[in-house]
Automatic annotation (TrEMBL):
Residues 10-127 form the Epoxide hydrolase N-terminal domain. It comes from Filobasidium floriforme. The active site is at D193 (nucleophile), Y317 (proton donor), H384 (proton acceptor). The lineage of its organism: Eukaryota, Fungi, Dikarya, Basidiomycota, Agaricomycotina. One of its GO terms (molecular function) is epoxide hydrolase activity. This is Epoxide hydrolase N-terminal domain-containing protein.
Amino acid sequence: MAFAQKTIPVRPFTISHSEQEVADLKTLIRLSPLSDKTYENNAMHEHKFGPSRAWMQETKSAWQDFDWFSAQADLNRFPHFIAEVPDVDPKTGTTGVLQVHFVGIESPHPDAVPVMILHGWPGNFFELLPLVSHLLGSPSNPPMHLIIPSLIGCAYSSKTPLDREIGTDGCARIMNSLMKGLGYKQYVVQGGDLGAFLARYIAIRYDECKALLVNYIPMTPSVARDVVPPLEFRDRDEQGLARTEWFLGNGFAYASEQATRPATIGYCIESNPIALLAWVGEKFLHWTDAVPTQDHMLTWLTLYWLTKSYASSIFYYRDPSESMNVTIPPGPGATDPSIDLEGLFVEKPLGYSKFPMELKVTPEHWAQRTGNLVFFKEHSAGGHFAATEQPERLAADLVAFLEIVWQAKGKEATK
């Protein structure tokens, strides 16, 4: 029996989209024109101003011929579930039940460590499956129960309620409720991008979470240089800060649009699959160290389209605290998490996997000032989608981190 200790309704789930849904998508792809050639979309610029027209045309043609049903069968090789998670808004007292989709893999080992892995944007559970495959394919010590949810608004999880705001804090609350509802009294959380932000919040707020490993600790270069003595910077640190400055100056417009006019951009992107290809596809080109395979990108994009989850996935950007920066507070616990999410110092064991082509690349010295850093690993390759780009390295980091923070063969986490 799956999740024998669960206290909430959980049912198996199979991804299944109809031939008509896929045919409609392909019709829209075929009928959707590309803009005319311009100076900015010329291939000679190597996507400097966005995807080149040549790349768009090539990928559009491939999407037209893409075999979704083969991809769907591959996705269904993993065990999927839908949980009914009750929620109470602490500000209004409003109650409700949200459906949370997740991939869940239980270890037969009685002392396995429950690990929740959280995706970012523009991700969903699919972003994390390469990491999951490596964890399953390599025996680890300690063994793990793996829970990989789609965040609220993403893929097959509930959209946000129409009568109240969920917000980033609400999503964190629901993810913790999911783990408790599945019967886990203590667990470790791993996350990147938005998932890292949620992981930090969960670790601060909820006792059930005992430790966190993240591959994203956002920062502002000017502040980092003020806090970290210049002599402590290495060449790699300067390269990371340069990457961050590039992103803030050349790649941040999408976030401003999603934060200030989510309804407007939601209409635009969900009206046309080619708009989705341009908006999300450019992230594969600019945010990665090595661009994913075409089939991988098309599976990712098709999931977004068929689940109609672009517009519902960007509400996190409207959160006023969603600058994705972690500031350094005067001392542990100095920031009230009920006010905002910035400045959260993590007293629980914190691990940081650093990848060189992340969007905001944080020096180790900075990471040490944001929490109880007990594990740090710097990698020579990898970008924003580390679980997809470098799953073997991130899997090794997770195993190493658990060996540090989980004691007595998984019976009790370091507190």
